[in-house]
Specification:
Elements (H helix, E strand, L loop, with lengths): L1 H42 L3 E12 L4 E6 L2 E6 L5 E4 L2 E3 L9 E9 L2 E9 L5
Parallel strand pairs: 4-7
Antiparallel strand pairs: 1-2, 1-6, 2-3, 4-5, 6-7
Length: 124
Amino acid sequence: MKKTIAILISVLLIVAFGTVVFAAQEAAAPAEKKEAAPAEKKAEVKTHQVTGEVAAVDTAANTVTVKKDKKEIVLVVTDKTKITLDKEKKGIADLKAGEKVTAKYTEEGGKNTAKSIAIAVTKG
């Protein structure tokens, strides 16, 4: 009889501690998800836009410098950068100093990567 009571008490203790551990894991799971959320926000990259004049084009380094007022922004041109003139696709070599452009870019790791550069159509 003592053996049976000892076994029943052991089983009850195992079940009791098991539920406590399971409940603790359930409570910890949402906290882990909340900690993961800021990392997702860091992955989110904000797009900027600048409208100005092309100050310089470096085809060797694949960069375009856009001047707006007294500020110059150096943009890195990649294979994914869309350069257009009146909806016609162009390349970095088609950009000339003094042209008016509107560029959309992302700033990441201290580098401005151009997403698109639209050359303004000049009348004349």
